């Protein structure tokens, strides 16, 4: 658990630094969006390419990843249903809420969980691939359609296809498929830019906390609690049921359930802030799940790790 605690402390420390930067007016008002935009259009694409270019696309087909991906789709559908029945959100808000419910932090929290609880960092790499290659393009394509483009959804989808995050993911996956060697002269700057992506997203997230408290009345708390509950409670339960029903081994059931309990990824806030859609809802959900997932992961490890 020490590694997991270190992962949480790392994230919260950088978020706190962002909050202090806004608190002491190092960054004021909308200036934080510059940091968010650099992360979205420059650093994150570099990170995704550097992660994907030497990956093994075949690992996407592992049974654990099929279970966790199916669980993500099911809980996302649960949020859409809840939005229709109990609280009304527009298309962008519903899409981002559903993404909050199923899009896990497979990088800066997933890695320490995989190493120190699951025993192998390779467990989260396939899910990272699925989220980057399948989930992210679908979410960004929907968000593009909410920009009021009068020429139709096909144009919006075309714009989504030219999104730097999607382009970097596709190019990185193609390089991995054909095994094209990348010279260090080219890869070095890309990796350096990519290393800045997560800190910039976390700093921007922390800056957004300045000036308003999380979970304030009138900010759509019902959607936040629904997304957070689906993420940290329902998704692990669904993953456990699916893994058990599909006959996975005891250890694979433990792995799938633990991965499903990871909190919402900060990337979702990056998308919301870039498109200026449902920012407060996404920010509060990321904040809430980051804290709530720790005791849930600890309970899963206690109950299932010995099975």
UniProtKB/TrEMBL annotation:
<feature type="transmembrane region" description="Helical">
    <location>
        <begin position="123"/>
        <end position="143"/>
    </location>
</feature>
<feature type="transmembrane region" description="Helical">
    <location>
        <begin position="222"/>
        <end position="247"/>
    </location>
</feature>
<feature type="transmembrane region" description="Helical">
    <location>
        <begin position="253"/>
        <end position="273"/>
    </location>
</feature>
<dbReference type="GO" id="GO:0005886">
    <property type="term" value="C:plasma membrane"/>
</dbReference>
<feature type="transmembrane region" description="Helical">
    <location>
        <begin position="164"/>
        <end position="182"/>
    </location>
</feature>
<feature type="transmembrane region" description="Helical">
    <location>
        <begin position="188"/>
        <end position="210"/>
    </location>
</feature>
<keyword id="KW-1003">Cell membrane</keyword>
<keyword id="KW-0472">Membrane</keyword>
<dbReference type="GO" id="GO:0055085">
    <property type="term" value="P:transmembrane transport"/>
</dbReference>
<keyword id="KW-0813">Transport</keyword>
<keyword id="KW-0812">Transmembrane</keyword>
<comment type="similarity">
    <text>Belongs to the auxin efflux carrier (TC 2.A.69) family.</text>
</comment>
<keyword id="KW-1133">Transmembrane helix</keyword>
<feature type="transmembrane region" description="Helical">
    <location>
        <begin position="285"/>
        <end position="304"/>
    </location>
</feature>
<dbReference type="InterPro" id="IPR004776">
    <property type="entry name" value="Mem_transp_PIN-like"/>
</dbReference>
<feature type="transmembrane region" description="Helical">
    <location>
        <begin position="34"/>
        <end position="52"/>
    </location>
</feature>
<dbReference type="Pfam" id="PF03547">
    <property type="entry name" value="Mem_trans"/>
</dbReference>
<feature type="transmembrane region" description="Helical">
    <location>
        <begin position="58"/>
        <end position="82"/>
    </location>
</feature>
<protein>
    <recommendedName>
        <fullName>AEC family transporter</fullName>
    </recommendedName>
</protein>
<dbReference type="InterPro" id="IPR038770">
    <property type="entry name" value="Na+/solute_symporter_sf"/>
</dbReference>
<feature type="transmembrane region" description="Helical">
    <location>
        <begin position="6"/>
        <end position="22"/>
    </location>
</feature>
<feature type="transmembrane region" description="Helical">
    <location>
        <begin position="94"/>
        <end position="117"/>
    </location>
</feature>
